[in-house]
């Protein structure tokens, strides 16, 4: 699934090409694309038509457009990318993609916004916006229009102003569970998926099955900092694209996969010590690590 850097690449593309434009019509192909919108696809298309895109926003892996129709409060068009969802900005006369499920046409006759989803796990839903429940230690704010209902339970991610680094460290230190499990816990810290968890653990020289409670607070802080650093680095290279499904709004793939040190590197020499990278099963996923730089713990935790 796309992780924070890949979603942020798409958000920036939407901010450049879609924000400030008024939607003329929305066209949905089939009902599945609007299955998360309780009132159905007809209601979704009717309420989106005539609305202006105020903002493209994100928290962790969650993406939404802030829309405002005349006389109404701002609403969030939440875009669930699922396993293979793509948002593409294309000319109206461009060939239709095989798995095109939704099209937004704008009043300015500029390029369309298309939602393409090969595996159909993604979709669109219109939902109210609510004040952010996460306190912002910096006081800077970051979601001027609020947070959509489906995203209220998601914790701030390490690239947000609202990210409470000391609070997350404190909560991690109190849990006697595998540290990688906590990195993947979107209710604790969002946006870190399997790829960037493995990369952050490799940089911190910590095995993913190490109990969080056994790590010092400075070590936990360094691990979170590495997660932020590796995601910023991936963002600078357009994200990580292992196939043609993960692209930006112009259809271009990211190339951070060429810079990965642990994830997907099974059998290759560790860039730090030369030992072959290993792979093991973890939470129905694959974990990649250096057995010398990241020695496995003697005690297994849940």
Description:
The structure is a single chain. By secondary structure, the chain is α+β, with helices and mostly antiparallel strands. It has 2 domains: about 5-150, MutM-like, N-terminal (N-terminal domain of MutM-like DNA repair proteins, Alpha-Beta Barrel), CATH 3.20.190.10; about 165-290, Helicase, Ruva Protein, domain 3. The protein contains 6 helices and 11 strands. The chain has helices spanning about 5-15, 40-50, 165-175, 180-185, 195-205, 215-235; strands at about 25-30, 50-60, 60-70, 75-80, 85-90, 100-105, 110-115, 125-130, 145-150, 280, 285-290. A 5-stranded antiparallel beta sheet has the order 2-3-4-8-9. A 4-stranded antiparallel beta sheet has the order 1-6-7-5.
Q: Helix share of residues?
A: 10-25%
Give the spatial strand order of the biggest sheet.
Answer: 2-3-4-8-9
What is the name of the CATH topology of the largest domain? N-terminal domain of MutM-like DNA repair proteins
Query: Overall pLDDT, averaged?
Result: 90
* CATH architecture label name of the largest domain: Alpha-Beta Barrel
Structural class: alpha+beta
Count the DSSP helices.
6
Can you summarize the main beta sheet? Answer: 5 strands, antiparallel
Oligomer category:
single chain
């Amino acid at each position: 699934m796309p992780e924070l850097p890949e979603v942020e690449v798409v958000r920036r593309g939407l901010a450049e090409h879609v924000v400030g434009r008024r939607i003329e019509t929305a066209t949905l192909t089939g009902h599945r694309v609007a299955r998360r919108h309780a009132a159905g696809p007809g209601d979704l298309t009717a309420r989106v038509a005539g609305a202006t895109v105020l903002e493209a926003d994100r928290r962790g892996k969650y993406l939404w457009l802030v829309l405002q129709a005349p006389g109404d409060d701002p609403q969030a068009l939440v875009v669930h990318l699922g396993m293979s969802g793509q948002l593409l900005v294309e000319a109206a006369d461009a060939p239709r993609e095989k798995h095109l499920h939704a099209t937004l046409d704008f009043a300015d006759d500029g390029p369309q916004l298309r939602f393409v989803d090969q595996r159909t796990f993604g979709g669109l839903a219109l939902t109210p916006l609510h004040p952010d429940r996460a306190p912002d230690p910096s006081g800077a704010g970051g979601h001027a229009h609020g947070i959509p209902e489906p995203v209220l339970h998601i914790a701030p991610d390490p690239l947000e102003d609202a990210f409470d680094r000391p609070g997350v460290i404190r909560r991690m230190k109190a849990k006697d569970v595998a540290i990688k499990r906590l990195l993947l816990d979107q209710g604790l810290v969002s946006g870190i998926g399997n790829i960037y968890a493995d990369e952050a653990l490799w940089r911190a020289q910590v095995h993913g099955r190490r109990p969080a409670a056994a790590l010092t607070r400075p070590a936990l802080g360094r691990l979170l900092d590495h997660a932020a650093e590796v995601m910023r680095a991936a963002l600078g290279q357009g994200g990580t694209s292992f196939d043609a499904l993960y692209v930006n709004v112009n259809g271009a793939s990211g190339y951070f996969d060429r810079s990965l040190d642990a994830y997907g590197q099974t059998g290759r020499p560790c860039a730090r010590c030369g030992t072959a990278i290993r792979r093991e099963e973890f939470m129905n996923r694959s974990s990649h690590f250096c057995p010398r730089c990241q020695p496995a713990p003697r005690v297994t935790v849940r």
